[in-house]
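Class, look over these structure tokens:
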Amino acid sequence: MRDPGCDNGSVSPTPAQQARAAAIAAEITARLADLTFALPGTIADPRRLRTMLSHLAATLHPGVLGDCFYQPGTALCAKQARPPAGKKPLPMLNSCLTCPNARRSNVHLPRLEQARGQAQQIISDARGTLPPLQQAALTSHLNQLGQLIGQITGKNTETAQP
């Protein structure tokens, strides 16, 4: 069965996969309950953990501006890579914001807003001094960030001006 929330051709987990994910989550919770010291890293909230574990067919690669359920057949970074990409995403190719494998949530909102603010600052500080192509690239990036923030918040937040 196709997952209506995913536009990249992913398939909804079967009941057996959901049961397996629940068992894994219960085992992890039981193991972590015994720890009395702080772990070096961030532990996902239960909703995000469920999302991560429900996609058992793909490996999750958490990111700052979005999480990637990397699938080489549909990943934009894999299509741009020379030679062809392997089993891991290539965020350095800067295609994560438009990739169909990427997923964003409220967890990513502060960093997306920070990136949008930085782009707005660069555009306002350098208005009139940037070459036209660089100005167009920054404006496009700003619009893209506004669209992504709008998808998360449900508001239209495009703020760049052509």
Residues 1-6, 158-162 have pLDDT under 50 and may be disordered. Helices lie at 15-33, 46-54, 76-80, 109-125, 132-153. Residues 132-153 form the longest helix (22 residues).
